[in-house]
């Protein structure tokens, strides 16, 4: 625990009522933000990128998380590395934020030079007795799970990441996202706390009123509804939809495509949920008409009718479809600012304008993310208002938010807050 943080964080945690949103201070206070970075972004596994962010030897990209800066790169042997972006001389940053191509990592301050493995190879004017062997760049613990790069900045990373790894290795294999191509990337800075960003993504209570483009292909009822509020016709339609889910899931799994929901959301360190979801309408992809955006399917996929393999983590959400994937990574910037970085993946050989149309590929999630940014900003502004008090979650469509809040409290307690 960071001892300088006031004990009143503990009082805020104590004041949270089961089934209700968090107390305002847990969204708005800077000391809570510092605690969140310490607990959830340093001591837990977080998604920071993809193997295909660095497709060739020498490709590198910098990811900043709080005061920590990381270099994700591919070395000369084609291996992925994650290194701290801190020179072992006097601490200078080696690389600037963003993507670059390097043959070696050269500190711009005094030209200390590192191999792409992190080994220090050149340190001028340090004397014959200087031992370069103990001055390599500090490595970061990481795992590539089906091509998604997870890091943990702690010396004691949670072991239950293995459940996520074992669950997703088979599910992600047909998409081969390690060898996919990033067709597009968009960074959006939301005016809200990172937990509001994640809460907003974990429910679709708001979808029908706010996401007309997404709702062409995404079924908002998948994440709960109150049957008493539905007309007899709508209730019958919902019941038919879930009968179809049961039938489709059995068929998919019999055909060798794991599809049933797997949840590790409470009483755990590594928080995730995955399920193969039915795509509405034409049933192929999350596009404006629910048809595939790319004629060249992802990886080893040969079918467009295998729905949407979705995956949540505590700082990411993902949708893997036959023709493309959408990967969103969340990085807190302050108590009231959150970066949402969205990447669209296609087959590595897909050609823009020939195999896919970029607007069709991206427009639904560009609009959805912008709409969500507005909702998060509204929510955060409300938590700053003296009139705010935690409100009740819907027991039909916001149960995952209650689980997230309970997990958040539990993990804060586990780390001494």
TrEMBL record:
Residues 45-151 form the Rieske domain. It comes from the Bacteria. GO terms for molecular function: 2 iron, 2 sulfur cluster binding; dioxygenase activity; iron ion binding. The keyword Oxidoreductase applies. Its cofactor is Fe cation. The keyword Iron-sulfur applies. Keywords: 2Fe-2S, Dioxygenase, Iron, Iron-sulfur, Metal-binding, Oxidoreductase. PANTHER family: CHOLINE MONOOXYGENASE, CHLOROPLASTIC. This is Aromatic ring-hydroxylating dioxygenase subunit alpha. It comes from Rhizobium vallis. The lineage of its organism: Bacteria, Pseudomonadati, Pseudomonadota, Alphaproteobacteria, Hyphomicrobiales.
């Amino acid at each position: 625990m960071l001892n300088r943080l006031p004990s009143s964080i503990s009082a805020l945690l104590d004041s949270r009522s089961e089934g209700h949103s968090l107390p305002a201070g847990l969204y708005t206070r800077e000391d809570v933000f510092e605690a969140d970075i310490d607990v959830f972004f340093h001591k837990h596994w977080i998604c920071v990128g993809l193997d295909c962010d660095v497709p060739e030897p020498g490709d590198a990209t910098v990811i900043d998380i709080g005061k920590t800066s990381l270099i994700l790169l591919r070395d000369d042997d084609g291996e992925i590395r994650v290194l701290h972006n801190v020179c072992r001389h006097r601490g200078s940053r080696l690389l600037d934020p963003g993507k670059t191509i390097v043959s070696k990592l050269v500190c711009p301050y005094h030209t200390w030079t590192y191999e792409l493995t992190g080994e220090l190879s050149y340190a001028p004017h340090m004397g014959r007795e200087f031992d370069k062997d103990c001055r390599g760049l500090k490595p970061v613990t990481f795992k590539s799970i089906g091509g998604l790069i997870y890091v943990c900045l702690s010396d004691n990373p949670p072991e239950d990441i293995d459940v996520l790894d074992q669950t997703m290795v088979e599910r992600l294999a047909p998409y081969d996202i390690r060898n996919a191509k990033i067709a597009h990337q968009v960074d959006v800075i939301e005016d809200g706390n990172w937990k509001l960003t994640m809460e907003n993504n974990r429910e679709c209570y708001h979808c029908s009123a706010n996401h007309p483009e997404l709702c062409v292909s995404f079924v908002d009822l998948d994440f709960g509804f109150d049957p008493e509020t539905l007309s007899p016709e709508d209730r019958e339609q919902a019941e038919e939809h879930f009968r179809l889910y049961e039938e489709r899931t059995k068929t998919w799994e019999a055909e060798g495509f794991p599809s049933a929901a797997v949840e590790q959301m409470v009483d755990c360190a590594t928080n995730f949920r995955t399920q193969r979801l039915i795509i509405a309408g034409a049933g192929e992809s999350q596009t404006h008409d629910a048809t595939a955006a790319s004629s060249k399917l992802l990886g080893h996929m040969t079918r467009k009718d295998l729905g949407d393999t979705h995956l949540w983590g505590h700082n990411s959400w993902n949708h893997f479809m036959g023709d493309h994937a959408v990967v969103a990574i969340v990085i807190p910037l302050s108590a009231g600012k959150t970066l949402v970085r969205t990447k669209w993946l296609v087959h590595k050989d897909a050609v823009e304008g020939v195999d896919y149309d970029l607007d069709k590929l991206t427009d639904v999630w560009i609009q959805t993310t912008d709409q969500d940014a507005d909702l998060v900003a509204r929510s955060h502004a409300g938590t700053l208002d003296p009139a705010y008090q935690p409100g009740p979650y819907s027991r039909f469509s916001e149960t995952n938010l209650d689980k997230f809040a309970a997990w958040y409290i539990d993990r804060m307690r586990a780390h001494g807050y």
